[in-house]
Specification:
With about 400 residues, the protein is α/β, with parallel strands linked by helices. The protein is built from 16 helices and 6 strands. The N terminus is likely disordered.
Length: about 400
């Protein structure tokens, strides 16, 4: 029966193509989307100089043109275009910087504050990034002027002053540690981000086995081919075993494709040093376990569905739950959630799929084994349940 299922799978070129191409293409496509389309969107910044004054501190003098040039030099890049006093409608710009009248005099005075009006277009996806870059430039300019003011005051008072001791009296010494308190390097921080991303990447591999199992049970039942198989001398356990093993062959294909897709993704972003063979191996095992548990979840669900459409709807709910968990790992530390939230999440098999790779990167090998064991145990329980619910008479009655 296994050979029949494998033969049917081999003939189903669409399923094989989706299984191999979805993980393999999705990750590189995501990298292309993140880089190419972002680079094609040019952000436009307009700088309006409404001030014609000149401000001086000692021998240093500044005017609005110099400020505009500083902003242009600091913010301009391949995808950011800065124009000074452009003609026409300003609604086409992501950010408009207005250097108000009297700015230079106020900037260099000892008793006044200089103001700049920043107009941000909330409809632009890149406006916030450009806005923050402009703010950083203005703050840097303000800091340099503050140093000059302090030096001028020190000269007038005859007191020796170190400007940084006044402007920046508290400085941090950055120390990275692991969750256990051990010293960590920046590489470890990047690896943890990689683990979050690999957990997210699992979202691309739950769909192919779900579609295959749903079609091989509910779809065959609607096409009357399952009824024919159930009336043959083949036992229902043999029939179900063939379908499960065939779905896990898809899992092996998906695991290989997903690993290849991840490697291509990181290389396209120039971050291939974040991954290593052992991490890829654990990720491949995680993919296989995730697909196995997905198969054992889907079988009891679709076996009891009245129609192929209802089976697909229920299977979609399962995959949606998986995707939610994997997306959550991008920004949430599940082990740090409150108990009343964390423990219910532990009842979801996909939580253990996400935490398996996460704990491996942290060096928690015992937790890795625990999560892998839970996935296997859940799969075994669900597998037994699948054999019990895969009842020939009830399935035929639904046809």
């Amino acid at each position: 029966m296994l050979w029949k299922e494998l033969l049917d799978l081999a003939r189903d070129r669409r399923t094989l193509a989706v299984t191999a191409l979805l993980p393999l293409v999705s990750m590189p496509l995501l990298a292309v989307t993140m880089t190419f389309f972002s680079s094609q969107q040019v952000s436009r910044v307009a700088v309006l100089t409404m001030d014609d004054t000149l401000g001086c501190i000692g021998d240093f003098c500044i005017n609005s043109t110099m400020v505009a040039d500083t902003i242009k030099q600091s913010v301009s890049s391949g995808d950011v275009l800065v124009e000074i006093n452009p003609p026409g409608n300003l609604t086409d710009y992501d950010v408009v910087v207005v250097i108000l009248e009297g700015f230079s005099e106020n900037l260099t005075s000892l008793d006044r504050v200089a103001y700049v009006r920043l107009i941000k277009n909330v409809g632009s996806s890149k406006a916030e990034m450009v806005y923050q870059n402009i703010l950083a430039t203005l703050r840097g300019l303000g800091r340099e002027l503050a140093k000059l003011k302090l030096e001028e005051l020190a000269n007038l008072s005859g007191v020796e002053v170190l400007p940084d001791s006044i402007l920046d009296p508290v400085r941090e010494v950055r120390v990275l540690v692991t969750p256990t308190g051990q010293p960590a390097e920046e590489r470890e921080e990047f690896r943890i981000w990689t683990a979050r991303f690999l957990a997210f990447a699992l979202a691309f591999i739950v769909m192919p086995p779900t579609v295959f199992i749903t079609d091989s049970i509910a779809g065959e039942r609607d096409r009357k081919t399952l009824e024919t198989l159930l009336t043959t001398p083949i036992s229902r356990s043999t029939l179900l075993t063939g379908k499960i093993l065939a779905s896990n062959v898809l899992g092996i294909i998906a695991a290989a494709a997903d690993v290849a897709g991840v490697v291509i993704f990181f290389k396209m972003l120039g971050a291939y040093m974040l991954i290593d063979p052992s991490l890829l191996l654990v990720h491949a095992v995680d993919v296989a376990l995730t697909i196995f548990v997905t198969s054992t979840i889907i079988i009891p669900v679709v076996s009891r569905a009245d129609t192929a459409r209802s089976a697909q709807s229920m299977a979609t709910l399962v995959t949606t739950l998986a995707i939610l968990i994997f997306f959550t790992m991008l920004s949430v530390d599940i082990p740090r959630l409150p108990v009343h939230i964390r423990y219910p999440l532990y009842l979801v098999p996909y939580t253990h799929s996400a935490l398996l790779i996460y704990n491996y990167v942290l060096g928690y090998n015992l937790q890795v084994m625990v999560h892998a064991g839970i996935l296997l145990a859940l799969s075994a329980v669900l597998l037994v349940l699948s054999y019990r619910l895969f009842n020939s008479e009830k399935i035929i009655a639904k046809t």
